[in-house]
Design goal:
It is built from 10 helices and 14 strands. With 313 residues, it is α/β, with parallel strands linked by helices. An 8-stranded mixed sheet has the order 1-5-4-3-6-7-14-13, sandwiched between helices. Strands 2-12-9-8 form a 4-stranded mixed sheet. Strands 10-11 form a two-stranded antiparallel ribbon. β13 and β14 form a beta hairpin. Bound molecules: N,N-dimethyl-L-histidine (AVI). Residues 47, 55, 158-160, 162-163, 203, 210, 277, 279 line the site of N,N-dimethyl-L-histidine.
Length: 313
């Protein structure tokens, strides 16, 4: 069995700096990567089980029904790289079909990643598994030191690319291009534009799990930075913005209030928003253009139930 886990320096200082900068900005905002502390990861898993949030189930079904065609289009791959791999569940399906020599998974939640990745090394003898506890948006290039020779596939499922602005997405996909190398490929899943009411329901589930996920960010800041947010004085507010083509998630202040974070005071007006996430939805060709800007050329695509997976080389 071959398994290695490397944890990159703690992102705690980034959290503090990003939160202070985000609270000083207008409108106030906090990057969505900070949703994923341990309770946040559990809440995100629960979101994926909600009847209104079909994205994860639909992608799983698409991958299951098209796997033979996807594997044939990919050809021989030596190394699969999955940034933001979470519980590594999505990589498993690809391992069955592609039999690579190496799997490199990265996630900001390092210890959860290590726990999820280690069994893969046991279950697939001959597979070298490398788990990198890192904020890949910050440290992606550090992964290249851990890649074995051979043809590489960057696998970025789950519509995570939708959590970046189009300019940020182009920048990130360009970095994926360099990491994959000249013969490398990119297999990427994203949510398609659809009925705004359906999108609205997906981010406003009846059980209130998405609301709890959004509000957990404030609880995290209280826990990790000694901030003094009262989550009861903020409301989860998510809606589809059809002009921008994105779901916007906000935490809206239910009162005029001042909140202390790391000895600094931040004033919120009644109704003022703290913008916590964008989740872009795409037309297939719109996404193809974004990937094209990053130096990728579309090789193939699959679509099912309002979700698309595209393969680029
Ligand atoms: C991880 N990401 C693709 C999810 C999304 O749909 O944008 C995160 C999420 N936010 C609220 N619900 C799910």
């Amino acid at each position: 069995m071959s398994f290695e886990f490397l944890d990159f320096p703690s992102a705690r200082d980034d959290l503090l700096n990003d939160v202070l900068a985000g609270l000083a900005a207008r409108p106030k905002s906090i990057p969505p990567k900070y949703f994923y502390d341990e309770p946040g990861c559990r809440l995100f898993d629960a979101i994926c089980e909600q009847p209104e949030y079909a994205l994860t189930r639909t992608e799983r079904a698409l991958m299951a029904s098209h796997l033979p065609g996807i594997a044939a289009a990919l050809g021989k791959i030596e190394c699969i790289i999955e940034p933001g791999a979470g519980d590594c569940g999505k990589a498993r399906a690809l391992l069955e079909a592609l039999h690579p020599a190496q799997l490199v998974v990265m996630d900001i939640a390092g210890s959860a990643l290590a726990t999820a990745a280690e069994p893969l090394a046991r279950d697939y003898p001959g597979l070298a598994v490398t788990a990198l506890g890192m904020d890949f948006v910050r440290d992606l290039e550090a992964a290249s030191a851990h890649l074995k020779p051979g043809r590489r596939l960057v696998y970025y499922p789950g519509s995570s690319i939708g959590n970046f602005s189009p300019d940020e997405a182009i920048a990130l996909l360009t970095r994926f291009r360099h990491l994959a190398g000249p013969a490398g490929q990119l297999l990427i899943g994203f949510d398609l534009k659809k009925d705004p009411e359906q999108l609205h329901r997906a981010y406003n589930d009846a059980a209130g799990i998405t609301a709890a996920f959004n509000l957990n960010l404030l609880a995290r800041l209280n826990r990790e930075l000694g901030a003094e947010f009262d989550p009861a004085r903020f409301r989860h507010y998510a809606f589809y913005n059809p002009v921008a083509g994105r779901i916007e998630m906000h935490l809206v202040s239910l009162a005029e209030q001042t909140v202390k974070v790391a000895n600094q005071r931040f004033h919120f007006d009644l109704g003022e928003t703290l913008h916590t996430e964008n989740s872009y939805k795409f037309h297939r060709d719109e996404f193809n253009a974004i990937a094209g800007e990053a130096g990728w050329s579309r090789v193939n695509e699959w679509e099912q139930g309002g979700f698309a997976v595209q393969l680029f080389g």
